[in-house]
Design brief:
Number of helices: 6
Strand content: under 5%
Mean pLDDT: 81
Helix content: 55-70%
Structural class: mainly alpha
Radius of gyration: 28 Å
Shape: rod-shaped
Order of helices and strands: HHHHHH
Number of strands: 0
Oligomer: single chain
C-alpha cells in the first residue's frame, strides 16, 4: 500500500506543476484586458512577435529630458543644459540644431510665440529661434 501511495505521489509531483502552469497561462490569456474589447483575448503568434527593442540614441534621450525640463521649468534652463551637454559630449553637436528647434516648437506650444522668443539664446546657431518661428 505505501509503495502504491508513493508512486501516485511521485506522479502527482511531476504532473501537477505542469498542469498548474498551463492552466494559469490559459486563464490569463482568456482575461479581457483593460482598454481592449471584451471579446479580444491575449494571443500570440509568430507573426506578431516584436523585434528586440532598440536602445535609444543619446540625442533622443537628451531631447526628451530637455523637453521635460522645458515643461517643468522654462526654455532658458533647457537651452543652457543643451549647451552644456554639447560642450561635454561633442558627439551631440550634430544633433544640437534639431534638438534646439524641437525646444523652440515646444516653447511656442507652452508659452506662445512672443514669450517663447524671449527665452532665445545663441545656442546651436539660433536653431531655437527657427523652431519658434516655424511653430508660430
Amino acid at each position: 500500500m505505501t509503495h502504491t501511495a508513493r508512486r501516485i505521489g511521485r506522479s502527482l509531483a511531476l504532473v501537477l506543476p505542469i498542469v498548474l502552469v498551463l492552466s494559469g497561462t490559459l486563464a490569463v490569456s482568456a482575461v479581457p484586458w483593460a482598454g481592449q474589447d471584451a471579446e479580444t483575448q491575449l494571443t500570440a503568434s509568430s507573426s506578431e512577435v516584436s523585434v528586440r527593442a532598440k536602445s535609444r540614441a543619446p540625442h533622443d534621450i537628451l531631447r526628451d529630458q530637455l523637453l521635460a525640463e522645458l515643461q517643468e521649468k522654462d526654455p532658458g534652463t533647457a537651452l543652457t543644459h543643451l549647451q552644456r551637454e554639447v560642450e561635454n559630449r561633442p558627439s551631440l553637436a550634430k544633433h544640437c540644431m534639431s534638438i534646439a528647434r524641437s525646444l523652440g516648437r515646444a516653447a511656442v506650444e507652452q508659452y506662445g510665440p512672443s514669450r517663447a522668443q524671449s527665452f532665445s539664446r545663441p545656442v546651436c546657431d539660433t536653431s531655437y529661434a527657427t523652431g519658434v518661428m516655424r511653430a508660430g
